[in-house]
Task: structure prediction
Amino acid sequence: MAKSNVIFMCSECGYESPKWMGQCICGAWNSFVEIKQSPASAHNALPQSPSKPLRLRDVISAGSNRLDTGLPELNRVLGGGLTPGSLTLIAGEPGIGKSTLILQSALALAGRGLAVLYTSGEESAEQIRLRADRLSGDNIPESLYIFPETDISSVAEAARGISPSLLIIDSIQTMRSAEIPSTAGGVSQIRACADALMRIGKAQGIPVFIVAHVTKSGEVAGPKIIEHLVDCVLDFSGEKDKDYRILTASKNRFGNTNEPGAFEMKEEGLSGIDDLSGLLLGGITNPAEGTIAGAVFEGTRPLLMEIQALTASSALSFPRRTSIGVDGARLAMLLAVLEKKLSLDLAAKDVFINIVGGFKPGSASTDLAAALAIWSSARSLEIQPGTLAVGEIDLAGEVRPVRGLDRIVSEAARLGLSKAILPKTAALKVEAPRGLSVLGVSSLNEAIEALLS
Result:
């Protein structure tokens, strides 16, 4: 192949260069990979729309033509349903339920008479039929098409022939283009296939659902360019020994990125969970060291959750700092504030912190609860059940207000909690519901006093 057909692309940001570079413009080192382009690829550009300015008032809003997925929790995360021509990427660990989720949606859409094309490069048609029988009770709609194929050109041809209302690709790592001389799953193949799917979706106005694998670190496998190409990136997570799953959007061009969806895995498939807070708080029943309720306001719903912390003497030169659900940098800051402002000696102790249920808050609302849980474990003092702590902690040890506190307090009262420790400036504006004592604090020291009261 001619040298002119070879370019180099950064696997982190997708930047292309005619020559290999040690450091990309995004700051990543040694991230460039060789991409061999087919001579035909230059003719695969998207159809160009007329170069003519439009009046904004004449543009039809995409939100007015949403496609109902048949799953209310999935619609919630997407911002109201699937947008025609959009690309949605869903990623998660193997066995978490990604294929079950999208097949349920496919069955629901096909049940309304809409054509759905389910392309699978990992499972045979018989395997998909077995799962569909379990989900629908042997009531398979006629308009649901299964296409076990890995060639992206064949998928494009099938999509043109069927003109489905939804195209599903399970998974992008198994797709390959004959124009790219490399194996499926490589950087160049994933990039080429994602680009082809974008052309299919945009040209025909078909929403495309793409399933992707994740790495051991929890990130989407493959080049970052695929996350830039798609319109929505969904993360499906949960603990495999528990039945509930959390769906969140890290990117959404047509909706809110902070709106979580909750599902429960049952024998007949995934069902939506309305009372997620009650489920996440179900384990707090007795007084315990290092266990307290925290809360966040995500999207349009308040979420209360159990936060656990454990400190133990370490035999290591560098004690361990392990966090599940809490950002590692945030945990390091909280430990520094606890040592400085509360004289809590943690230098020789391992510190473990966990948000039960696998939920990962996207805000600092859980700072106060995490700090109090760590203090409780380090001091070997029990926290009474029914105690809620919400607030952001700054470097001075002050407690700052967060959004949605009025809704969080109402949710805490509904769940039967007895004490809420909140930032003082916000607590003065919150009306305490019956049965819930609201205590306003300005600093970590005041929060400790409120905890012990």
About this structure: The radius of gyration is 25 Å.
